[in-house]
Amino acid sequence: MTTLRAGDLIQVGRAASVQFVKPIRCRVIRVLDWITYDGWCWLDVYQLDDRGDAVARRSIFVQPAGLVVHRRTVPVPVGQQRRSGSTVRPRTQR
Questions:
Q1: Per residue in 43-78, pLDDT tens?
Q2: What is the model's pLDDT at position 84?
Q3: How far apart are CA 66 and CA 53, in angstroms?
Q4: Which of 5, 8, 10, 23 has its CA 20 to 30 A from that of 51?
Q5: Residue 42 has pLDDT above 80, yes or no
Q6: What are the extents of the domains in the chain?
Q7: In what order do the strands lie in the sheet with 54-62?
Q8: In the chain, which ranges are continuous DSSP H helix?
Q9: Alpha-carbon distance 48 to 60, whole Å?
Q10: pLDDT of residue 1 exceeding 50
């Protein structure tokens, strides 16, 4: 079974739940800790359009084993953000 975390991009289709006849793409907000049947879980997600923009917030009941995880986002710690080598200097007037 796939371990899901906030930020994961997933595709939800019939393998995850029969209600998703047409697959949808989502970004996981959180995995809810509600008591469910074995092998099922509740997810809070943002449904994404073709451009990857959020169009709806949904709570979905799915089998994680049937989800397709496209990419996991890894946040960069604040102290380790990449910095450019050049410095920006104010323009001087002539």
A1: 999 999 999 999 999 999 999 999 998 766 566 566
A2: 55
A3: 23
A4: 5
A5: yes
A6: 9-75
A7: 54-62, 41-48, 24-32, 9-12, 68-71
A8: none
A9: 14
A10: no
Residue type, 12: V
The pTM (predicted TM-score) of the whole model is: 0.70
Work out the percent of the chain whose per-residue pLDDT is above 70.
Answer: 72
17, 66 contact by CB (below 8 A): yes
Q: Which residues contact 83 (CB under 8 A, 6 or more apart)?
A: none
69 by Cβ neighbours in 10 Å (0-12 / 13-18 / 19+) ranks as middle
Residue 83 tokens, joined: 């910095």
What phi, psi does 66 have (nearest 5°)?
Answer: -95, 0
Residue 91 has pLDDT above 70, yes or no: no
What stretches of the chain adopt beta strand conformation (E)? 9-12, 24-32, 41-48, 54-62, 68-71
Q: How many residues does the chain have?
A: 94
Lookup result for tokens 């080598």? 85
